[in-house]
């Protein structure tokens, strides 16, 4: 029966991606291969170069494979104590930000959302700046006051935004939340500006946080951030079908069997937790959480079951490479690299897809 | 007698202090086709939302397939009742087939994702509604008429025994209004899907639905075949307009009138 077909003109394929997208599993394998290459490159390259063969040897030996040592102890220290934790932190932070970004975009139904949209960034920045002013250096798991206060600040500001901004019933769109996030963010930015004004000689430390950077990475810090980021991201991936249901809006999601009120709160909490943990160890790294999910959607479409894992892999690759670039350019902040590469790229993306993104 | 597929008994709903439904009784039998009509603010949309468990009534009993809605989880409700979404703003480029596939969400295994049966149901729904040529298109770029057919296909893929729609013909041109009505009638008659639709166009409702329920001020004021429900004096009392245009018995629904768009209907609705 084709009542509709009668009135329908023969259509061209209008979505600008291949009719048969490569399977997500294949893309994931390719992505993981690329990530492995990026890791080896990032661990091998630096002020003291370690041969790629030695790098692979050190890495494999460190996970217990019986490989003869053909390298100097110094090379092993550089790889295992300095570069490897840094690269693994980049993987965690890049992957986590990409998953959180995809989750925020889906939850807010807004393609321009990123992990920082609900005040996490401004809360974390204010927390970090305040920490810089406090002349007390608590250290826990290699984390200073700066990291702990930025983590707490990010979570606190999301909690405030959520308390103030929800309302309008369980099926109201989250536009109110978005605007509340903007308002609270502006307020916190004023606090940040004031703190920076008072910071005097410590200004550089605040800037380093605002621009993002992985130079302080260590195994202990990774031990703090990795469980939060990996656990939160996995929990988000397990809720991919909720994000799919939300594609058509809150009420449609409810009709498709999603407990919208509860799932929305859970996903917001998880994505905020992942973001806060990432920000605490790496500062405000921009654009990964915005661009990685979009790139993945261009290839595989909007199905969150595919978007979330692939965005995590892509985000990890992007941040590992951006951090490598930042190191090679003389330890410039990695946030500068991601912004310089990410912003024009995102513009091209917006112009290339002929669709008018609705806000 | 088969038990009703959906039933409201003495349902009263209030938004704050304003009563939106007052003691509504309504039963829909399996395979029935019912149109809800009535003026704006009569409580028609609220009635649908009560049935779907989205609005909890202050008083009364709501059952789907014999079980109280309040006792069913959201996914269980979604397997018994499919709603054609009213608005559909997509934030990302989404193929028509991907939109239709959303209808399988309540059936999918939460971790393994769609199974072959789900893919088959999506293909069948696309075929059934006749939107095959639209499959690969970005659903955001469809015309309103095409979009409505896609959303109906989504609900068909959901494979629930009851389909609810809130003003499925709003903003559509005459041809698409008729196409949507014919599709609903056909889904009802051939697949046995019960249909409960809120309609504003009384001519369409009378022509395509054998049973009309007229709501006014939160109460059911008439329930029965179109000729009885749309009696001129009742139209005048409910809508406050002179209903001379409706006094055309030939246009009232009978099985034989369900194929194609008869000229009376075209003239009747086009002249509004």
Task: Write up what this structure looks like.
- The complex is a heterodimer of chains A (359) and B (272).
- Chain A is an all-alpha fold and 359 residues long.
- Chain A has a single domain (32-44, 76-349), classed as ABC transporter involved in vitamin B12 uptake, BtuC, CATH 1.10.3470.10.
- Chain A contains 15 helices and no strands.
- Chain A has helices at residues 3-6, 24-44, 52-62, 73-107, 120-133, 145-165, 175-199, 203-211, 219-237, 240-245, 250-255, 260-282, 288-300, 304-328, 334-352.
- In chain A, helix 6 (145-165) runs antiparallel to helix 7, helix 6 (145-165) packs antiparallel against helix 12 and helix 9 runs antiparallel to helix 12 (260-282).
- Chain A is globular and about 65 Å long.
- The two termini of chain A are 37 Å apart.
- Chain B is of the alpha/beta class and 272 residues long.
- Chain B folds into two domains: 6-72 and 161-270, P-loop containing nucleotide triphosphate hydrolases (Rossmann fold), CATH 3.40.50; 88-160, no CATH class.
- Chain B has helices at residues 44-51, 74-80, 96-101, 116-129, 144-157, 174-191, 202-208, 226-229, 232-239, 263-270, and strands at residues 6-15, 18-28, 33-37, 59-64, 67-68, 81-84, 162-166, 194-198, 211-216, 219-224.
- In chain B, the strands form two sheets. In chain B, strands 6-7-8-3-9-10 form a six-stranded mixed β-sheet, with helices on both faces.
- In chain B, helix 4 runs antiparallel to helix 5 (144-157).
- The radius of gyration of chain B is 19 Å and the shape is globular.
- Chain B starts with 5 loop residues before the first strand and ends with a helix.
- Residues 251-272 of chain B have low confidence and may be disordered.
